[in-house]
Structures are given as structure tokens and as C-alpha cells.
Specification:
CATH topology of the largest domain: Arc Repressor Mutant, subunit A
Strand content: 15-25%
Helix content: 40-55%
CATH superfamily of the largest domain: Winged helix-like DNA-binding domain superfamily/Winged helix DNA-binding domain
Structural class: alpha/beta
CATH class of the largest domain: Mainly Alpha
Number of strands: 14
Number of domains: 2
Radius of gyration: 22 Å
Strand order of the largest sheet: 6-8-7-9-10-11-12-14-13
Length: about 375
């Protein structure tokens, strides 16, 4: 079992501050495991809302939940959206005897209803798959290849991991999306998802993708937003600076989990990955997710100009502008694009992330750092 100390602390802190905590994340990312671990340390009541038995227990939800004290966990709460008004009533009691931990897979209806019914009463924690700080030293290659979903990463073999990911993709398309209220055929969405995998790390181009699928720009945009809302895809928005240059105005598209990316483009082993033309963009997306997990910015951007200068990631922290570049190379070099980004964006620092644990200075304010070193992991 891989400890998930950061997420546990975040949930416990949220429950101490707010009557309701929403633990959000994709299916099979470990929400239920973490919730049961937290519930095991206190007086608690656990409801799995996909269980017929627990559905019967909640036929009169205000009566059933109103008499409980301690921690009340509601798993897969998006299956019963009518619970949100009840939770609002219970959270507004003068002396709240219970705290509510609700688990959801980021269904659009779930987010909309909770935002409307529980505004000011709920605090969200987003839970993702494993990252390097959790898996530790010597795990970089396996985590990159298999991705962070616990059962994929912990599988007994690469073959078993591939089988799990295929099952996940099929279940997500055939069961989960319809349950979330997303009415798109499984075959059409899989084709779209696969095409996105081949665009991983590139600028979004709705017209090109729409022509390839025989769909309108509006339809492929809708598909993209649905995969984003369910934590499968990241749309990294562009940053604009008043510098008198034409700048890129469309988002960059990344599949959030590298294992799902590799499965959709047919990569099953490390040797296949390292020989594939997408290895560089795959590494970029993997490293991007690792940095975002470590820095946890409220907003993140990329930046690019029509002249070719670009910055893979721009975040703002404590009034400082921090830039990140991701290079699949043992010894990245300081480039003209980096110099332009430093000057035009007035960066306080620029970190170039590469594989391994190397640390070196490339130029004033510019450092190259292996991803293990960035994550604070010693080399094996």
C-alpha cells in the first residue's frame, strides 16, 4: 500500500474547517480507499451509494443522516444528486454533530448541484493517481509507463497493467460517461480520445480534429470539455503578455495520466515507449503533472509566440513568476527560447526539468533539475 499523507491531511483539514468536504477525482484513483482509512480513525458511518443496501438506508435521507454524529461518508454521491439540498439543511444546523465527506468522480451534474446547494459550506480536495513523492526512489520509469492509477501502477506485470487500463477505458466509456449524463457513443468518444492522445502536448485545433472525425467544431469542443470535467484531459490555458508580439491564444492539450496516454497509442513496454516518436511529448506531460502536484498553483499557464518562443509552464506564487521547461534530455542546454521567455515574461526563475536527479545552473536564474531531485527523492 502506498501512503497518501498529503491528501489525508488535506481532507482532515477541510473537515475541521467546513461541515462538508468534497473529495473529487477520477474513478479508481483511490478516493474510497482514502475515505475508509480516514473513517477508520473516528466514529463514522459509510454509505456506498451504488450499493442497493445503502440506497435503501437513504430512502428518507434527512431522517437517516440527521440523527448521525461523527464522520459521515457518502461514496459516489453523484448517483443521488437529490442529496445535496438535504446536506445543505444538515450543514446549516446550529450545532452540527456530524461532518460529511462526499466522494465524487467529477460529474458535471455533481459539480453544478454541489456548487449551487452547498456554497459556503463545502471545501474541495482533488485526488489524483500516485506521484513520485508517493511512489519514491527508483520508480520514475514504472510510474511514467503505467501511470498513476493505483491498480495500473501496482499491477504484477506490464501485461497485467495493460489489461487493467483497457478495462478502465471500456468501463469509463460504456458505464461512467452515461452515468454522468454525458450522451456520447462509446465508439465515437474512444476514437476522439485516441486522436487526442496523438495530439498530446500540442495546441488545440478544433477545426483539424473536427474534419478528421467528420464533426463540427462545436461538437469536438464539447467532447473535449467532457473529458476535462472527468479529469481525463488537461487544458493548459495560454498566458498573454503585453509585449507587442503575436501570441498563441489556444490551449495546449494533455492527457492527465501517462498510462492511459500510452495505452491509447499502443505502448505497453519501456522499450516501446523509448523508441516511439511521442516519447518527448509523453515525458513533457508526465513531468508537467508532477510539477503541478508539487507546486499546487491556483492557476497555471503556458506561453508561446507565433515566432516560436515558448514556455511550457508558467505559475505565480507569492508574487513571483516561476517558469518551467520540460526536456527529455540528459543535459539540456540554455536556448534562445528560454532567454526570450525570461526577458519577455520577466521571470523570477526558470527551472528546466529533465529525467533523473541532476542539478546544475545553466544561466543566471536558470537551473536544470532532474525530476527526482525536484520531487525531493534521492537517487536509488
Amino acid at each position: 500500500m502506498v501512503p497518501r499523507a498529503h491528501y489525508r491531511k488535506a481532507v482532515e483539514t477541510a473537515l475541521a474547517r467546513s461541515p462538508v468536504c468534497g473529495l473529487m477525482g477520477p474513478r479508481q484513483s483511490g478516493k474510497s480507499t482514502l475515505a475508509r482509512e480516514i473513517a477508520g480513525t473516528a466514529a463514522s458511518h459509510y454509505f456506498d451509494l451504488e450499493s442497493p443496501r445503502d440506497q435503501l438506508r437513504l430512502q428518507n435521507p434527512e431522517l437517516a443522516l440527521g440523527r448521525l454524529s461523527g464522520l459521515v461518508v457518502l461514496d459516489e454521491v453523484q448517483t443521488q444528486p437529490d442529496l445535496f439540498p438535504v446536506l445543505r439543511v444538515l450543514a446549516d444546523r446550529a450545532d452540527v454533530p456530524a461532518r460529511f465527506l462526499i466522494l465524487g468522480s467529477a460529474a458535471p451534474e455533481l459539480v453544478a448541484r454541489s456548487a449551487e446547494s452547498l456554497a459556503g459550506r463545502i471545501e474541495y480536495v482533488d485526488l489524483h493517481g500516485f506521484d513520485l513523492t508517493e511512489t519514491g526512489s527508483g520508480t520514475q520509469e514504472t510510474l511514467w509507463l503505467r501511470g498513476g492509477f493505483p491498480r495500473s501502477y501496482l499491477a504484477a506485470s506490464d501485461e497485467a497493467s495493460v489489461a487493467w487500463r483497457e478495462g478502465f477505458v471500456r468501463t469509463f466509456l460504456e458505464r461512467d460517461l452515461p452515468q454522468f449524463g454525458i450522451r456520447v457513443g462509446a465508439a465515437a468518444m474512444r476514437r476522439f480520445w485516441t486522436m487526442l492522445a496523438h495530439m498530446h502536448g500540442q495546441i488545440w485545433n478544433a477545426s483539424e480534429l473536427g474534419r478528421a472525425m467528420g464533426l463540427s467544431d462545436k461538437t469536438v469542443r464539447k467532447y473535449l470539455d467532457e473529458l476535462s470535467q472527468t479529469f481525463m484531459v488537461r487544458q493548459l490555458q495560454p498566458w498573454f503578455e503585453n509585449i507587442g508580439k503575436r501570441q498563441v491564444k489556444s490551449p495546449k492539450i494533455y492527457l492527465r495520466d501517462s498510462g492511459i496516454l500510452h495505452h491509447l497509442i499502443g505502448l505497453e513496454t519501456e522499450s516501446q515507449l523509448h523508441a516511439h516518436p511521442k516519447v518527448g511529448s509523453s515525458w513533457e506531460g508526465f513531468a508537467l503533472e508532477q510539477v503541478l502536484r508539487q507546486t499546487r498553483p491556483t492557476q497555471a499557464y503556458f506561453w508561446g509566440t507565433q515566432g516560436g518562443a515558448e514556455l511550457d509552464l508558467l505559475v505565480f506564487a507569492a508574487g513571483r513568476r516561476l517558469g518551467y521547461e520540460f526536456k527529455y534530455a540528459e543535459r539540456p542546454q540554455f536556448s534562445r527560447s528560454m532567454r526570450v521567455a525570461m526577458e519577455d515574461l520577466r521571470l523570477d526563475s526558470l527551472v528546466v526539468i529533465c529525467p533523473g536527479s541532476v542539478q546544475a545552473t545553466l544561466a543566471p536564474g536558470v537551473e536544470v533539475m532532474g525530476i527526482d531531485a525536484f520531487a525531493g527523492i534521492a537517487s536509488p
